[in-house]
Amino acid sequence: MRPSERTPEQLRTVTLETGVNRYAEGSCLVSFGHTKVLVTASIEEKVPGWMRNSGQGWVTAEYGMLPRATHTRGRREAAAGKQSGRTQEIQRLIGRSLRAVVDLKALGERQVLIDCDVIQADGGTRTASITGAWVAMASALNYLKDEGVLTTDPILDQVAAVSCGVFKDLPVLDLDYEEDSTAEADSNFVLTGAGQIVEIQATGEKRGFSRAEFDRLFELAEIGCAELFALQRAAVEAARR
């Protein structure tokens, strides 16, 4: 039995609340159990200098954790004067994941900036960020379509992410911190609604893991993402009402 008493293929309770920021073009408060991330999507009518006159837009992301998102207070990275390698890696992952399902030409020469602020961390903050970021981005682009700024939907597909791991020799879905901190193997899967792979991060933490274990982790990720896609669609639809 898992510490949370979930079955191996069971997600934590996931909620995607839209419209939580009155100023951003799109926003989502995403919760995976006790992990909570506030995601906003902002539209800028310009692109980075290296993309000017390209006829294409851009999607990028920033990620950060509030000081008391974890068990002990962490120092703000702004106070340290630089971002950690972990922060840079995660925000690049979020940006890559979203760009994989966006037609940048249809977006036009404008930029979608995604901000992911971890309010509370209990494992899976990057996967929660990606899942909530798609909802915030879709809401922002729907706003542009409703305003007549966009005539073509730039979103090609959904994208969501979930963690899987081997815990006490059992492959399980959506690890919380207690499982993640002691897992024999840990992985993050970023998948599209069409079933394509955007990225897989998989690591043997305490031992190597077998092909059979990996195949089961992949199967669990597909099960979990199917549920997340349904929740994303419902959240975006609710935001339009």
TrEMBL record:
Amino acids binding phosphate: 86, 124-126
Residue ranges annotated for the Exoribonuclease phosphorolytic domain, each copy included: 10-140, 157-222
MF GO annotations: 3'-5'-RNA exonuclease activity; tRNA binding; tRNA nucleotidyltransferase activity
EC number: 2.7.7.56
Keywords: Nucleotidyltransferase, RNA-binding, rRNA processing, Transferase, tRNA processing, tRNA-binding
Domain of life from the UniProt record: Bacteria
Reactions the enzyme catalyzes: tRNA(n+1) + phosphate = tRNA(n) + a ribonucleoside 5'-diphosphate
This protein's record includes keyword Membrane: no
GO biological process: rRNA 3'-end processing; rRNA catabolic process; tRNA processing
Subunit and partners: Homohexameric ring arranged as a trimer of dimers.
Entry's family note: Belongs to the RNase PH family.
Function of the molecule: Phosphorolytic 3'-5' exoribonuclease that plays an important role in tRNA 3'-end maturation. Removes nucleotide residues following the 3'-CCA terminus of tRNAs; can also add nucleotides to the ends of RNA molecules by using nucleoside diphosphates as substrates, but this may not be physiologically important. Probably plays a role in initiation of 16S rRNA degradation (leading to ribosome degradation) during starvation.
Name recorded for this polypeptide: Ribonuclease PH
Taxonomic lineage: Bacteria, Pseudomonadati, Pseudomonadota, Alphaproteobacteria, Caulobacterales
